[in-house]
Design brief:
This protein is an alpha+beta fold. It has a domain of 57 residues: Multidrug-efflux Transporter Regulator, Chain: A, Domain 2. The chain contains three helices and five strands, in the order E-E-E-H-H-E-E-H. A three-stranded antiparallel beta sheet has the order 3-5-4. A two-stranded antiparallel ribbon has the order 1-2.
């Protein structure tokens, strides 16, 4: 992705709202799935296979979150293999 692009942000209904870019933004699995046009299950599989970097946020194991820059890395790697 072009570093000068505007960042897609999601509102409560997971609709795109364009705003200023922040590479440290944390996305949910569902948001990543919407961006990649994949199912949330497919995203979780890619995370489990260490294809998409993710971290757990919150208490007791937390929930999976993907930083925007990690998602961009994944997209760039996929582009190179297409």
């Amino acid at each position: 992705m072009n570093r000068n692009n505007l960042l897609p942000i999601f509102d409560d209904d997971d609709d795109f709202v364009v705003t200023q870019r922040e590479t440290s933004l944390l996305l949910t699995v569902r948001q990543v799935a919407n961006i990649l046009k994949l199912s949330p299950e497919s995203v979780r599989k890619e995370i489990k296979r260490n294809k998409i970097r993710a971290s757990r946020v919150g208490p007791q194991g937390g929930v999976l979150r993907v930083r925007l820059d990690w998602l961009e890395e994944y997209i760039e790697k996929r582009k190179n293999f297409s």
